[in-house]
Amino acid sequence: AGLSYLAKPSTGPFLGVFSAFLMTLSAIEVFWKRRPDWVLPGGWKPATALIGLVILFATFFVIISPRMVMSSKTFGEPFYNTPSFWFWADNWETCVQKYANCTKAALAQMPQEERPTLGNYFRRNSPAIAIERLSVGTLTKLKQLLVPDGKLPWKAESKSRPKRMILPARGWYLVFCGLFAAGMILAARGVPLTNPGGMAYLLFGTGVFCLYTLAYGWYHVIGHGARFVMMFYIPLLWSFFAAAKAAANSPARVIALNTFHVLLALPLIWRLAELSANPAFEKIIHAF
Q1: Closest-CA residue to 165 (of 187, 144, 193)
Q2: pTM higher than 0.85
Q3: 220-270 pLDDT, tens per residue?
Q4: Is the pLDDT score of 1 beyond 50?
């Protein structure tokens, strides 16, 4: 699922943040390697970052290349992405009526003041309207993150109708993982947060989460697909596990971490059994 998501152009900001994350770890290794108390997890080396980046971008271009070929033949631009223009529209109706075609040729025939750009958006709207759009959309995305479909897990599904999503309790998993990571850091007396390696992991998770929460919150008036939430849900969940692992610096905390993994796996296995017994979904878009 993670690899297939690389085919979406919206992964561009994620790749940028991840690249900055790897370079930060490399800088820590190069400039602070003389500090014995600043240890990077897994024996980090700058060469590891370079190899990782090469593999990441090679995988990205292999997966996205069919789309690039199709986009080049259809629109004349390999990285053409309509939503990147819709980002500066006022609503969905405007996108359909005016911005269905945003190729360079189509934009060239469009009056300068009507093109979908940041400057034109603020010529049409006041800062107060922009702030309201961002705040309302962001709060909506945060609600979708914790309470998918706006319903509590035990009310999200009914035996009399098909399912609508894979993990209706995903918000609870996030809360429990966050509390556990915080508990592990407190038990370790904050060591992961005073270590620049731990800080790099924290900044990566926070950066991806904030970037995509705000971006999709702004885009909510155009498209409010629940599937967008997974773009910042997965990195945030990974950051909690990375923080907990960094704090497992004693035998007792290692046992606690392994026990938590087992306890978290149990409801996931139960959910997998439920889906296997009744895999019918009402709409495939809700399966994300």
Answers
A1: 144
A2: no
A3: 999 876 666 777 777 788 778 877 887 777 788 888 888 888 888 888 888
A4: no
Measured in residues, the chain has a length of: 288
Measured between alpha carbons, how far is 208 from 261 in angstroms, rounded to an integer? 24
- Return the closest-CA partner of residue 5 out of 217, 227, 215: 227
Please give the Cα distance from 257 to 149 (Å, whole number): 31
- What is the distance in angstroms between the CA of the first residue and the CA of the last residue of the chain? 10
Distance CA 84, CA 102 (A): 10
Neighbours of 219 (CB within 10 A): 20
Please tell me which residue, 105 or 34, carries the higher pLDDT value.
105
Amino acid at 56: L
Q: Are 84 and 218 in contact (CB under 8 A)?
A: no
In angstroms, the CA 100 to CA 158 distance is 38
pLDDT in tens, 104-137: 889 889 999 999 999 999 999 999 999 999 999 9
- Report the C-alpha gap between 284 and 261 in whole angstroms: 29
Phi, psi of 165 (to 5 degrees): -155, 160
